[in-house]
Design brief:
two-stranded antiparallel ribbon, alpha+beta, globular, 47% helix, single chain, 224 residues
Length: 224
């Protein structure tokens, strides 16, 4: 399997693992897929993007929710990290919350800016997206399993008392990464097949062609 095929298959696996019905096992596996795609020493997306040099963009939400944890209240985004859910969730449709959302539009930036985003906050303690994904990939079974406690105390406290919020944050991060990398996947696929299936190109137009609806030509027997 070459890098392009591995990238496409890994990205599609990430999409499946981070849908709105994802299980805890899916979330853990998603952390390993994210690590492979964007965080390894030579991440897969970078290897594939060498031939395209695309400038990829990522969008993530600003909203965090207070949650109790040993050592004081912590702020965790959970599903709200995903700006699409933030816009559409029924709980966000009140006039007051719409105004809050409008005053704090999603961030947009590079992959490295997203991975460096402080997603878990308690006072001066912070855990970035990269650190959160690395924990689940390296300690919880996404790539490796290690029963040792998390490296950061804040993450250890939240894992003990609010792990569902952490899982939702990881799933939201996976969806954000999928959307950010989707243009690269499209570039790979179109490089292999320049025209979308079902389209015929000529010098004047792009004409839809559906084979099943085209009448078959029949030869007419020649007279005599």
């Amino acid at each position: 399997m070459d890098a392009d095929d591995l990238f496409i298959d890994t990205l599609e696996d990430l999409r499946r693992r981070t849908d709105l019905r994802a299980s805890e096992y899916d979330m853990v596996q998603a952390s390993g897929l994210i690590r492979r795609l964007v965080m390894d020493g030579r991440p897969l997306y970078a290897e594939v993007n060498r031939q395209f040099c695309l400038r990829l963009s990522f969008r993530w939400g600003r909203l965090r929710v207070a949650t109790g944890a040993e050592g004081g209240v912590a702020w965790v985004p959970g599903s709200w990290l995903d700006p699409i859910l933030l816009d559409l969730h029924p709980e966000m449709q009140s006039e007051e919350l719409r105004r809050v959302n409008a005053d704090s539009p999603p961030w947009e930036g590079t992959l490295q800016q997203f991975l460096s985003h402080d997603t878990l906050v308690r006072g001066d303690e912070k855990v970035t997206i990269r650190e959160l994904i690395k924990h689940y990939a390296n300690r919880e079974g996404g790539v490796h399993y290690d029963a040792a406690p998390p490296e950061k105390e804040l993450l250890a406290h939240l894992r003990a008392e609010s792990e569902s919020a952490l899982r939702l944050t990881v799933l939201a991060a996976g969806r954000i990464i999928y959307r950010g990398l989707e243009p690269l996947a499209a570039a790979v696929m179109l490089a292999e097949r320049p025209g979308p299936f079902g389209l015929r190109t000529d010098s004047e137009a792009v004409t839809p062609y559906v084979a099943e609806t085209q009448p078959r030509s029949r030869s007419t027997p020649s007279a005599g």
